[in-house]
Write a structure and sequence with these properties.
8-stranded antiparallel sheet
């Protein structure tokens, strides 16, 4: 006789086995695709054989991790690789979640890191010839180059009237994170026509597929369009205003009156040196020994600013300054009046749009394969954990278990590196400033020492001004260095005489502040500007 307990045990075992199978099937249905790249991609992913796509894909670890990914290995190349799904992913019913990770290990100056979700091959493509013309349903992911910096979401939707597939770009998409960490990008398509874009699990954009302002062009075309055959009539007048034909120029309107006239009230400043030229021959200049009058012409001394003019209001012939002419009116123009023939800005008439349609839901094409087809100037781009699921919680669980630990570890390492670099930079800055202070103590700086020390103190305290201030100090050092090598200019006789006169007056009077004496000495030391000797044209 058969043991009844054994029957009960068998029944329980079968029930547990059935429940396990049901649960496994339930979760398996949630993951329509999950690619972790733990195993080598060869044999499962197909690399395009098109000759333009010379970039080599590699199965490598992400820097600092034991986690493998699909890696872009070369700069300035086109890449194309595709994986076919075992079953079509239907986007028409229920929720669809598209998610994957990207790490830009060397940054992204110009290139893409997006994924294309391809239509069935019956639409006209084969895996070995995957390229930028292969038909896709959705393109999603980062793209950056020049002014472009966005997380693309592009839907290719078939117009049921025309049969054409139109690209509909998400307006105002989120930007691409600018660091070199692993980021996870998620697109959630819900049955109520809603689209949500998440970056690192945080919602960055929400849109509606049927909303007029969320996609460019909008999924639902306009009901009417301008008639392409309509033409503007020849007598159509678009001028809102016209010159008054009955208006005449006033008799007292002088079109010849100048815009400016001499200021009759101006007076010549006292001390103006009428007989002194603004420039004089350099008294210290000498004719070069190799100057040949026959070949080079008669030698003339170079000109310098007349030292007498520096103390006077001006030199040479005095002329009255110009002022605006109160009688100036310019060229007369008739006033504008409303145009009695004005009909407005012409537009072609509207006609019914033959491609207009209405739908309650987008007619999504199913996803048959996942492809990466990019051109990029950077290498080291890592793709990982590519997921297509029908449950948001599944995507969230992968973010928590697969992405977040990597991201947190990378953030911690980045922070440590930034701290190290900052400490190293402070050490370098200290060495630079210590040496600059030593140079500032050298005697050759003379009266510039105080100015240099003041600039150094400002540079130390205000980090944002450090580079500009250090550049100023370098200019000062260089100027003094040139002066030491080539020597300063001799003082003009007039200035020397004035200096002596001032010194005698100061010694006899013994009054005045030290600042005033310094200013006088600086004025006396100022030499007229030399001009480079040139040879006169014959």
């Amino acid at each position: 006789m058969e043991d009844p307990n054994r029957k009960i045990w068998i029944m329980q075992y079968l029930l547990l086995l059935s429940a396990a199978c049901f649960i496994s099937q339930l979760y398996a249905s949630d993951d329509q695709l999950y690619e972790s790249f733990d195993d080598n991609f060869e044999g499962r992913w197909i690399v395009s054989e098109k000759q333009d796509y010379t970039g080599v894909w590699k199965h490598e670890k992400s820097e600092g991790h034991d986690d493998y990914g699909l890696v872009v290995s070369e700069k300035a190349r086109k890449y194309a690789i595709v994986k076919e799904l075992e079953e079509l992913a239907d986007l028409k019913d229920g929720t669809t979640v598209l998610q994957y990770e990207v790490r830009l290990q060397n940054g992204l100056e110009c290139g893409g890191a997006y994924i294309k979700y391809l239509r069935p091959q019956s639409s006209g493509w084969i895996a070995k010839e995957f390229d930028n013309e292969s038909p896709y349903t959705i393109m999603f992911g980062p793209d950056r180059c020049g002014a472009t910096n966005k997380v693309h979401f592009i839907l290719k939707h078939k117009n049921p009237k025309s049969g054409k597939y139109i690209e509909h770009h998400l307006k105002f998409p989120p930007s691409v994170p600018s660091d070199k960490l692993t980021h996870v990008y998620t697109a959630i398509l819900t049955p109520d026509n809603e689209l949500r874009i998440l970056v690192d699990g945080e919602e960055k954009k929400k849109a509606n597929f049927l909303a007029e302002d969320d996609f460019e062009p909008s999924l639902i075309p306009s009901k009417t369009i301008p008639d392409p055959d309509d033409k503007k009539p020849e007598d159509w007048d678009e001028r809102a205003k016209i010159p008054d034909p009955d208006s005449t120029k006033p008799d007292d309107w002088d079109e010849e009156a100048p815009m400016e006239v001499e200021d009759d009230e101006a007076e010549k400043p006292e001390g103006w040196l009428d007989d002194e030229p603004e420039e004089v021959d350099d008294p210290e200049a000498t004719k070069p020994e190799d100057w040949d009058d026959e070949e080079d012409g008669e030698w003339e001394a170079p000109k310098i600013d007349n030292p007498k003019c520096t103390e006077a209001p001006g030199c040479g012939e005095w002329k009255r300054p110009m002022k605006r002419n109160p009688a100036y009116k310019g060229k007369w123009q008739p006033p504008l009046i409303d145009n009695p023939s004005y009909k407005g800005i012409w537009k072609p008439q509207e006609i019914d749009n033959p491609e207009y349609f209405e739908v309650e839901k987008p007619d999504f094409e199913p996803i048959a394969a996942v492809g990466i087809e990019i051109w990029t100037m950077q290498d080291g781009i890592v793709f990982d954990n590519i997921l297509i699921a029908s449950d948001e919680k599944v995507a969230e669980s992968y973010r928590e278990s697969a992405w977040k630990p990597k991201f947190e570890a990378e953030k911690l390492k980045q922070k440590e590196e930034e701290t190290t670099e900052s400490d190293g930079l402070k050490g370098v800055q200290k060495v630079v400033f210590d040496n600059l202070y030593k140079v500032a103590d050298l005697p050759f700086l003379g009266e510039h020492k105080v100015k240099v020390l003041d600039l150094l103190e400002k540079a130390e305290k205000q980090a944002n001004l450090t580079i500009g201030i250090l550049a100023s100090i370098v200019v000062i050092f260089f100027s003094i260095f040139l002066k030491l090598i080539f020597g300063g200019k001799k003082k003009p006789a007039a200035v020397v005489a004035e200096t002596k006169k001032t010194e005698v007056a100061e010694s006899s009077n013994k009054e005045g502040s030290s600042e005033e004496k310094e200013e006088q000495n600086e004025d006396a030391a100022a030499a007229p500007t030399r001009r480079r000797t040139t040879r006169r044209d014959n």
